[in-house]
Amino acid sequence: MGRLTLGNINPHVVEAKYAVRGELAVKSEVYRAKLRKGDKDLPFKEVISANIGNPQQLDQKPITFFRQVLSILENPKLLEHEDVLLSTLGYKTDVIARAKWLLSHVGSVGAYSASAGIPAIKESIAKFLEERDGFPADPSHIYLSGGASSGVNTLLHILCASPTSGILIPIPQYPLYTASLSVLNATSVPYYLDEASNWGTSLDTIKEAYNTAKDNGTDVRAIVIINPGNPTGASLSEAEIRSVLEFAAQEKLVVMADEVYQTNVFVGKFHSFRQVLLRLQQEDPAKFGDVELASLHSISKGMVGECGHRGGYFELLGFDKEVEEQIYKFVSITLCAPVIGQCLVELMVNPPRPGDPSHELYEREYGAIFRGLRERATALYEAFKEMEGVECGEPQGSMYLFPSIRLPAGALEAAARDGRSPDEFYCMRLLEATGVCLVPGSGFGQKEGTLHFRTTFLAPGTEWVGRIKKFHKEFMDEFR
């Protein structure tokens, strides 16, 4: 065979695209390394990674209660000095109690857990789901995962039986889905969100995409909904969720509800697919009783922002027992999710309650993060409103804005000469001039003839927003 080359390794991996960590992100890391070494040649003093929802890289502070509990889990010897923890280090009695409780169920965080996760943590998640939705949950259908991405990977492996297996994916979408389907050599069936109605989910569009794919011989097996949306931030109404579930019931589609941004909602309120499905099952058990729903959640987003700890879970409703056995086997192949990540999931779903010693600080920190995100989202939105050729819906949720952008003909020609799509060309020039890294809309999918970019609003301050405005004006003037 000779050496490995691009021509002889797995072609499906070569084919996969993952823009949030693509060429722009790689170049931004090169710039970051140069700045670290004291390089003075760049036209900016810092790199702003607005390309990826990575809150703590962008100065979001970890929640004290979470990290204090984790510190004891990592170093149980601290419990020999409870007096020091309480009197000198600012730990509260509920931190110590929670750490002891977790240690009693986990043993050591350095040991593997059961493949689907630590039973006591699954019970905490079940209680959280019951409180959130008003319907009990069964811990035996809950699986802990290394972030939601790992859960998505598991489910897609189970769903995709052949190259004609199709999955309905919202466009624009988080590129994890199309990249994973590429690697699995399965079929992505895109359905477009409606930008004119704040990136709403249109059932007509979903049906059209489904019927076209079916006519082309695709065996469409599931629909993915990202709610609140990434990259759009749109939050689905209860009526939209009902219509998706009705369609899924009618066409026997598995519903994958990616709900990792459920606490990042600025407009309206979050409705879980689980709650709406269970209500529909009460109203019409014959019609909705067999709907298969997988809902995913994660510690990476929201006010928790603990992406590096890789924790998440998915819950299954309505799946065949033998299929669940195969899902269990699949998660067993990777042994278990990171145990410290599992513990963080427990803390996320079961935070300090009113009256607990840590509650006041927890509420203060949580609220400050939420308000900070909303303020920065608004500042960005206001800046985009002033930029020529840029249109952006009002921030609704998640951590992103996804404005559309109209570029002058000169910029389109320059991009073609550069061998790039116009939105990539714009984002590359922006990075080179300002150190701000965005993701071109083509990385998420966009309607033919439209251009967008995605930016997070996680970076602290608003000075970098000014950099984008200044660059944009100069760019438009250069290519007019």
TrEMBL record:
Domain Aminotransferase class I/classII large stretches: 104-462
GO BP terms: L-alanine catabolic process
Pfam family, one: Aminotran_1_2
Cofactor: pyridoxal 5'-phosphate
Domain of life, per lineage: Eukaryota
GO molecular function: pyridoxal phosphate binding; transaminase activity
CDD domains: AAT_like
UniProt entry keywords in alphabetical sequence: Aminotransferase, Pyridoxal phosphate, Transferase
Quaternary structure annotation from Swiss-Prot or TrEMBL: Homodimer.
Family: Belongs to the class-I pyridoxal-phosphate-dependent aminotransferase family. Alanine aminotransferase subfamily.
Protein name according to UniProt: Glutamate pyruvate transaminase
Organism expressing this protein natively: Monosporascus ibericus
